[in-house]
Amino acid sequence: MNETLRFGRIAGIPIGAHWSVLLMMGLVSYTLASTALPELVPGRSAAAYWTTGVVAAIAFVASLLAHELAHGLTARRYQLPVQRITLWMLGGVSVLDGDPATPRAAFMIAAAGPATSVGIGVVSGGGGLLLAAVHAPELLQATVLWFAVMNLALGVFNLLPGVPLDGGRVVRAWLWHRYGDPDRATAVASVAGQTVGGLVAVAGIVQLVTGDAGGFWLIAVGYVIAIAATAEGRQARARSASARLVAGDVMRPATRSGAASLSIDRFLAEMLPDIPQLVFPVEGPDGRTTGVVSLGRLAGVPVELRPTTTLADVQTPLEQLPVVDPRAPLADLRQLGPDDVALVVEAAELVGLVTGYDVARALDQDVSRST
After folding, report:
1. Which CATH superfamily is domain 248-370 in?
2. Greater pLDDT, 83 or 276
3. 68 catalytic, yes or no?
């Protein structure tokens, strides 16, 4: 979630907001001023309802910020830098610079937010009861108790057991401790997140059927949860696959090559038909490989220049290419672009080639099989 407004820093953490937080504040203010407060405390002026509603909306946004700051400050306690905190329509996002180092750190960071929201709710609820005991204005009592209920609901809702909710991250930390594998834990917690998102959306549909327009809000929340959970699970499975698969699993054997002096026209006419290669080694006069050429690069040469342009003219020299062992994990090759090439060398002999496309396809197929 990209920020639209930057508010400065709190404890060194950049704080910002997406424009949609203004829409959320408007909806909260309108609901309080037009419906909730008039029902709870009738007989007040519209100005009183609206003033109270706007102040309550601002206070609620501040409580959302406190929730995210709890995540951020706990992360810093565990030596994990915080890039920024961004508030938006459905809450807030704390962007951490990396992943927690241990399951315990992951658990504490995840639990800090809901604990803060529940704490604010309990304290606010006590404050509301105290205000009632001293016969404070009823509008103030009702607003403070509403604020308490909202924070308690926020804390409890965030404890639902599915990523990206805090409860899902607590579950992930426990699974990480149990499995010893953070990516496997994330993949399992993401399935729970998809389920939670679906159930929240279904609850929203039920609300709409019964005539409650608030169902639209639940449908939006459920959709966001399900989409985020799916994305996190897919990323985790891709990381797991990149550590499990090796270069030898996806490399293309360099079965055919072209002489450096061969023209592109002649190479395409004589060497290419029926050869399922995308990248070809280029051999010098002594038979040694001097570089590689890809079909994409050959296709980029204008047709009229192909008869006079040799493979040596367009090859990528070996010294410009990364070299990996057949047993190197794909994680070492994920930085390759679709048309980039790495040489697979064993015992000083070229045994194959790996392109970024090969890596991406292998990871995608592995992730698809595991979903």
Report:
1. CBS-domain (3.10.580.10)
2. 83
3. yes
